[in-house]
Amino acid sequence: MVRRPLEHPPVQALALAFFAGLLGLVVNAARSDGLPLDRPILAASGASAEATCAAPERHVAAIELAEARALHAAGAAFVDARPASDYALGHVPAAFHLPSRGEKPEAAQVIGALRGAATVVVYDDGASCALARHLGERLLEEGMADVRVMLGGFSGWQDAGEPAQSGLCEACEAVAEGAE
Predict the structure, then answer these.
(1) What backbone torsions phi and psi does residue 178 show, to the nearest 5 degrees?
(2) Which end of the chain, N or C, is less surrounded by CB atoms within 10 Å?
């Protein structure tokens, strides 16, 4: 009597392990909260030799109006993430305009100018700060080291009696002219 390969217990165990692993990978890929298997395992920084599953993530810090006011007085760069029409109606003095969604012709020059700032404060006017957070994450990806989102947005800034300007982005125009 000739035995087929799958009748041997060791071969059966290997086949079962292979198909179970394959099924696990398929289920993981299909889940919205599946494990990211494409990221390397990196050694953690510091004295510990523990490993982590991902590079350390940098997040955009949220700050209150009082901290934003102090940063503005200290010369931090401010960026308005709202649409151009909202920016023109009113914005933080000397703030750059860089819409969170879409592009503007001088976006690369504005981002280049922001790279020289020690701190960048981004704001919008939504309760969730979604536009500002989105732009803040983009700025982190562009290499900015310290990006913060001002809670309360421009309306919170105005409600607190802080100074405001209206009109087009003079800082953006100056950066664009300097690049030409």
Answers:
(1) -65, -25
(2) N
